[in-house]
Amino acid sequence: MERTHIEADKTIAKRANLQSYENTKELFTWDHALQELSQAPSGKWNAAYECIDRHVAEGYGDKKALLFTDGDHDETFTFAEVKHITDGYAHVLKESGVKVGDRVFIFLPKSPACYFTILAAIKAGAIAGPLFEAFMEDAVRERMQDCEAQYLITDENLVKRVPFDDVPSLLKTWDIEEFDREAQQYEDADSPIVWLDEQDGMLIHYTSGSTGKPKGVLHAQKVLPHHLITGKYVLDVHDDDVYWCTSHPGWVTGSVYGVFAPWLNRATVVIHGGRFDAKEWYSLIERFGVTIWYSAPTAFRMLMSEGDLYKDFNLTSLRHLLSVGEPLNPEVIYWAKDVFNARIHDTWWMTETGGHLIVNFPSALIKPGSMGRAFPGVTVGILDENNEPLPANEVGKLAVKAPWPGLMKEIWKNKEKFDSYFTDNGWYLSGDTARIDEDGYVFFEGRDDDLIKTAGEQVGPFEVESKLIEHPAVAEAGVIGKPDELRGHIIKAFITLRHGYSDYDGLTEEIRQFVKTKLAAHAAPREIEIVEELPKTKISGKILRRLLKQQEIEKMQKEVASEWQKKNA
Ligand code: PRX
Q1: What is the pLDDT of residue 208?
Q2: Which CATH architecture has domain 10-436?
Q3: Which intervals hold domain AMP-dependent synthetase/ligase (predicted)?
């Protein structure tokens, strides 16, 4: 039987913080923030205070704030301990001259120190610039140069990738061990908190679009209600939850939903140091009793390709999972329901949007293939080429009525780029294409130019990829439109095979027939190429369809050239 939706589990839905989507008009209200953010009434606040110090002041100092493991050893920190450490760190920064608005970069592996230094920079009033630990020299240079970073906290390994001569703005660099030692002298000092205005900067993340240099997306303190309220209703944090976000804070999911949103809601946060390892991940969930788990489709697909491994672990603590960053294939949602007995809640947002905008709530029905519905109070639309709204079910540009609390404050020193996101009639353009059904569920189609027209028919690559990975032999798939004289484009699929499968005569034809019979004849790839791995973005692991397409076109051009040479030799 074809499965078309997944209802919310009754017990979970009843306990969820948001129980009715339909009756909830607006959640991002100032009143709402006032109830939750202790310092909001004063008009001055500090995100780091609201994440940590407030809970200590309210009597939760002994609650576990952080559980860390790198596979070999574990560490635990209470909220009081995190307050103490981040206070000391903030004092070091202030004593060294850090002022409101200065850029303090943090280049550390995923570890407690990475989280603590981010918070300390914010306590001191600075803008924290977390860098992804896998960045190499060029990536570090471009980012630190662009916003003229003045301070850097790193470690003895990563420091080797910092091109000091090219970042003349840099005033001081600390090795984390030395930084930690300097903090000892502030044992009994007063609170270092610098109270800030809502427009003061707090975090800078660089997004590397498909073209051009990375852009510095600046989040201001005003994002706080967005983080707090989506943390409460979408992550659905309760006091007994153990929450794990697998992303490094150098990526926006790892900062907003790794650090801020969970800690604003007093969650016990898990950090796993090190790379993906299926066994270690499953064992972490079992050992720490993870209840809420935020990761990405690629990670879920990798676990899926491990087959029965999950059976060796007790994963019953999981209440729900969340996903972001790339399309979540329905197949993955059904797999999770079967093996974890928990739903995956897809979320859509961008570095620039500062927080969730399209979501699934624990209390509401999921339509697999859809990213969910607009967060209450957010207006999402599908626009035509004149930026006018289209009716239900028509595919067009995915846009959001601006502003909302999390929306970036600026693109660092690039007003032109910032302005290019907004239309004259008040919409923010995401660059994605999508459609919205009659119930308000949003279905992702692709980035602006990912859609495939083949023989006059529109095909979303995501749909084809989802179908491909339902075939038992296929682990991952990237689908592009390959230029074709007769059809405009034909569909070409690049696939990797699951463990235990190797190429055999007739396999690609079998897969083609599978899509043809399951999805649609016009959507079945005419060409399927088996590859060792698919090109992906370094940070979020999104499959780079554009690169696949570019490589394919170059290959075609070479073939044409060599034909021509043969004929004219
Ligand atoms: O194309 C959309 C895709 O990721 C883009 C934003 O990327 P980034 O700024 O790196 O932020 C990722 C995490 C916040 C979007 O324009 N994207 C994000 N969420 C989804 C998604 N694509 C499909 N489904 C999603 N849930």
Answers
A1: 59
A2: 3-Layer(aba) Sandwich (3.40)
A3: 55-412
